[in-house]
Amino acid sequence: MKQKLLIFLGLIFLIVLLIGLNAASFVQKEKIPDSEFKPNRSTYNAGATGTRAFYELLNETGRKSVRWQEPMSALFSNSKNKPSTFIIVGQTRREVEDKEIEQLLRWVSEGGKLVIIDREPPAELIKTTANWSVSAVPEIEPSLYGIDPSDQKQMTEKIVSAKPAQPTIFTKSVNAVQPSRFASSVKFEYFTDADDSTKNIVVDPSASIEKDDDYDEEELPPAEIPQQEKRGQGSGIGSGKIPPPAPKEIETVALNAPVLHLANDKKNLLIDFPFGSGEIVFLTDPYVVSNGGINLVDNAQLATNIVASSSGIIAFDEFHQGFGAGENQLLAYFAGTPVVPIFLQLAALVGLLLFSQSRRFARALPTDEPNRLSKLEYVSAMAELQRRTRAFDLAIENIYGEFRRRAARSLGVDNFTVSRRYLAQMIAERAKLNADETENMMFKCEEIIHGEPTNKREVLELTRCLRETEEKLGLRRHKAARK
Questions:
Q1: Is the pTM of the predicted complex or chain greater than 0.70?
Q2: How far apart are CA 273 and CA 285, in angstroms?
Q3: Integer Cα distance of 466 and 468 in angstroms
Q4: Residue 204: which residues within 8 A CB-CB, separation 6 or more?
Q5: Is the domain of 80 the same as that of 187?
Q6: Which of the listed residues 327, 351, 385 is the one where a domain comes to its end?
Q7: Residue 35 domain-assigned (yes or no)
Q8: Cα–Cα distance, 239 to 222 (Å, whole number)
Q9: Are 149 and 143 in contact (CB under 8 A)?
């Protein structure tokens, strides 16, 4: 016992020593402040580059917004939490893979709404099934990355506010929007068939298109009139037939041009364009919806209009921000603290103890000899002998003989001269039992003792009845009497 106590105390000392060494050697990492060089656009981030204020604004104004922490394949589930609007803000910590982009665009083509708020989004996420190509043109100088994102004056210095390009649902109640110095510009091009000799034409929405004096629509054959002008849709220039270059799995119902909603003197900031049966909205500056800039002019109103223009659940992509459902939330919670190495060291210590207990580091010990000095050794030996030889009559003889002797002594009669019937009546009267059943039980016991065939089940049943009768007569031995 003393040896085990020493081992236990040594184990406790080792655990305390490990915890102390980890705590003493732990150096807390300095928290890196938010910066536009490495922003954190998560809705969990309350810093200047985060979007927590935007997320809480939607919830507090009655919109149903959720943090999406599942893969893109879950967008096709039939659950009640299936979103109608999906938002990806800024550069994500986890790269959006090609397969995920394909699944996301498939969801959009089936009627979903994708909102991209980024300065340099993946080119595959800002494409349309119409005869247009959309791209982002970043205009960021390396010297700007030292700007403090929480300083609104530094972020918006010498930047003209953007005005609505036309009255749309996105620009409702919006007079001006203040972008940052990091905002990109949208460029979109109209293109014709591959067989057409006309080159791609870059469309500048701020410029007007003047007709050539020599141009006359009546001189063109009906088949040569551009389809966009026939249908009254789009604003492109070209000739010949213009079939939509839709993906294999997507059919474009109609050709629709991108719609410019917001621009300033130099940049196009907000457009939306169709993709299959759904739409993609592209805002070129996350600063508009970030914690540091959402309170400027009408930034909050524009952000709300963009994501809440359609009914349904609004989902913020947190899966690619490092908050996926498959992540170990316990380890993530204790990340950066000495708890994780302490836990791993304790697990290794427990594994070592289990390994040492299952291994033998000395010669084999002899088996323990059974204690032959036990007072019940004779009883247990006789019981085992009777069980193996199936001597049930001998077992009943021992049990019934002891029962009859003790019952006769308790009732004050002679065990050798009293008849079975008279003794059964006295037992039944004392224990408040049926006299015939008691006599029948005693008769069966005596028949078995005299050689009547029996079995294990019957012997167990008779033994149970005898023990119950003893309890009712008060003949059970107490622990003190047994000693």
A1: no
A2: 17
A3: 5
A4: none
A5: yes
A6: 327
A7: no
A8: 11
A9: no
CATH number at residue 316: 3.40.50
Print the domain residue range for 121: 52-141+148-207+220-327
Examine the fold and report which residue of 327, 356, 389 is the final residue of a domain before the chain moves on.
327
Amino acid letter, residue 170: F
Residues in the chain: 483
Q: Would you say residue 42 lies in a domain?
A: no
Tokens representing 368?
């323990």
H or E element at residue 6 = helix 2-25
- Based on its alpha-carbon atoms, the radius of gyration of the chain, rounded to whole angstroms, reads 45
Q: Position of tokens 């939509």?
A: 244
pLDDT, one tens digit for every residue, the chain (483 residues): 566 677 777 778 877 877 777 777 666 555 677 788 888 999 999 989 999 999 999 999 988 999 998 888 888 876 777 899 999 999 888 889 999 999 999 999 999 999 999 999 998 999 888 888 888 988 777 667 778 888 899 889 888 999 999 999 999 999 999 999 889 999 888 876 543 433 443 444 444 333 344 434 343 344 333 333 333 333 333 333 444 444 444 444 345 788 999 998 889 999 999 999 999 999 999 999 999 999 999 999 999 999 988 888 999 999 988 887 655 556 656 666 667 777 777 788 777 777 776 666 567 777 777 666 666 666 677 777 777 777 788 888 888 888 999 999 988 898 888 899 999 999 999 888 999 999 999 999 999 888 888 888 888 898 899 889 988 888 866 544 444
Are the C-beta atoms of 316 and 55 separated by less than 8 Å?
yes
Q: 10 Å Cβ neighbour count for 94?
A: 13
**Residue 22, amino acid:** N
- Phi first, then psi: give them for residue 351, nearest 5 degrees: -60, -40
